[in-house]
Amino acid sequence: MIGDLVIETKGLRKTFLSKEKGEKKEVEAVKGIDLTVRKGEIFGFLGPNGAGKSTTQKMLSTLLCPTGGEAKVLGYDLAEQQEQIRQNVGCVSQAGGADLSSTGVENLVLQAQLYGLDTLTARKYAAEFAERFQMNSFIERPAQSYSGGQKRRLDIALGMIHHPQLLLLDEPTSGLDPQSRAYLWGEIKKLKAGGVTIFLTTQYMDEADKLCDTIAIIDNGKIIVTGTPEELKSSVGGDAIVFSFLSEETARNAETLLKEKVQVERIQTKDNSVYLTVKDGERMMPELLRSLDARNLEAQTVTLSRPSLDDVFLKYTGRSLREDERK
Amino acid sequence: MKMKMLHDTKLMFIRNMQHTLRSPVFVFVSMFQPLMYLLLFMPLLNALGGVPGLPAGKTVDIFIPGLLVLQALFGTAFVGFSLIDDIRTGVIERFLVTPVKRPAILLGRVLRDAVVLLLQCVLITLVALPFGLNVNIEGFLLSLLLYALIGITMASISYGFALIYKIEDPLAPTLNTITLPLSLLSGIILPLALAPLWLQDLAKINPFSYTVNAARALFAGNFQNIGILEGFIVISVLAILVFLWGLRSLKKMAS
Questions:
Q1: What confidence tens digit (pLDDT) does each residue in A82-106 have?
Q2: B102-128 and B59-77 are packed helices; what angle lies between their axes, rounded to 10 degrees?
Q3: Engineering a disulfide at A106: which of A102, A129, B50, B216 sits with its beta carbon 3.0 to 4.6 angstroms away?
Q4: What is the DSSP string of chain B?
Q5: Which residue in A61, A130, A118 sits closest to A93, CA to CA?
Q6: Which of A63, A89, A116 sits opposite B93 (nearest CB)?
Q7: pLDDT single digits (tens) B14-50
């Protein structure tokens, strides 16, 4: 029915009217984006606060009406077939949306009923998810007593209760402690293993890096670059390697040798250390060490660092992801 | 299609009723105002019996139906605050991304509000009986429908503004601004027959003054009184209009 593409957008746009000092102004939150999300992948939508991530997700979940462009979600037209999209997509907003004065079970059962399931099935599914997300110890308590991590689990269970093929997750781990984050990452991977396609917005580089098969970086309402984490990182350039030696002379000799041996993108010696950037540093390393040893140029320490998605963001936007927040 | 609307409305009604039943004390707290009028104001009115619009010995019969309209106005006017809480915690957005029928989200709420209001109206009437209230029982039962419609109207207005503002601060002043003149221009506290002409004319454009007339006629059992029909027509049309307006606000909320 839907083939390989779960989400497909062309020139999707959203402008808001905002009043500032009595003057009406158009604010372009999403400036025409093209996305393709393939079946079974975790698609990361990475960008700083206010980049247009949530707005895009709200359009895909039918909450917001796009100003322009077109989109297909699970093969359904976003403008024409909202009912079908709502029925088949799961959605977890940033706020989560659990009813805090109700218990986890009450939340889950009502949510399943809203998707048209009968009471018996709704109860069965609620119990299933309580088990699956290890919520049994607190699921009968009102949600206002939950910890951040527990509440997040309930939020995601609410989004998954009707077993959708596509799950939209808006910043699922923001504000969580490291342990809860790691737990949720595990659960998200399990959902993927179960065949669910996941569209995940995040402002965390490590999250996108660890979880996602494909990443689109969005900044200022536009997609800047799309690719696998590996592709994006290698687009920045090679890996950085630092060899340190006992003397500057040894370092200079090593530099001359390394220049002959491999194609380096950049190399320089400073004090007792040689700094070089090469493609595929992990693979090159053993060979480099062997060549140095063969000439009796004994390296004291070696460090290899791979480019991070931070470097990617920096390269494409000219600023660091966290820069805006520091201001 | 209709089945789904019914199904969804029932779900939403139950959900909201559960919330009310979790803290039932508030059902009684919001009866405080009319009870105070009953205990501390009605004795004053008794002494006034005989002035135009307030036949001697009948002040209780005239005052109570109006007091119930007052309860319908003020008792439901502030239900929007609970909706703001649901907006802030993302509950409404979560409902909106499910296939739930949009009118059901509001219907489930206003129907809950109407049920709570009817319970209050019955209780206030019972409290008023020892004060010498004479009431036609069929008329009273029919008047409950009238109060329910007023409650639905006020609740829809309250939810509509809650959906527009999305924060508490401007909500209370807005609702007070609406309800106070509406209640003063309904002849609830004192009969409008006492009012100067311009005030009486002004009351004629207040839809709620028709409901007060209708409620009084119903309590007295004057079923031939044309005011009953007028009251029902006015409040039904108003209820539908403001409900549709609230629904529009709900649909527009996200954008």
A1: 999 999 999 999 888 999 999 999 9
A2: 150
A3: A102
A4: -HHHHHHHHHHHHHHHHHHHHHSTHHHHHTTHHHHHIIIIIHHHHHHHTTSTT--TT-HHHHHHHHHHHHHHHHHHHTTHHHHHHHHHTTHHHHHHTSS--HHHHHHHHHHHHHHHHHHHHHHHHHHHGGGT----HHHHHHHHHHHHHHHHHHHHHHHHHHHHH-SSTTHHHHHHHHHHHHHHTTTSSS-GGGS-HHHHHHHHT-HHHHHHHHHHHHHHT-TT-HHHHHHHHHHHHHHHHHHHHHHHHHHHS--
A5: A61
A6: A63
A7: 999 999 999 888 888 888 889 999 999 998 888 888 8
Residue with tokens 């065949």: A195
Token output for B106: 């509001």
* Chain A, nearest residue to B14 by Cα: A110
Which pTM does this prediction carry?
0.87
CA distance to partner chain A, nearest, from residue B99 (Å): 5
* B22 Cβ contact partners less than 8 Å away, ≥ 6 residues apart: A101
CB contact under 8 A, B254 and A64: yes
Number of H-type helices and E-type strands within chain A: 12, 14
- CA-nearest residue to B88 within chain A is A95
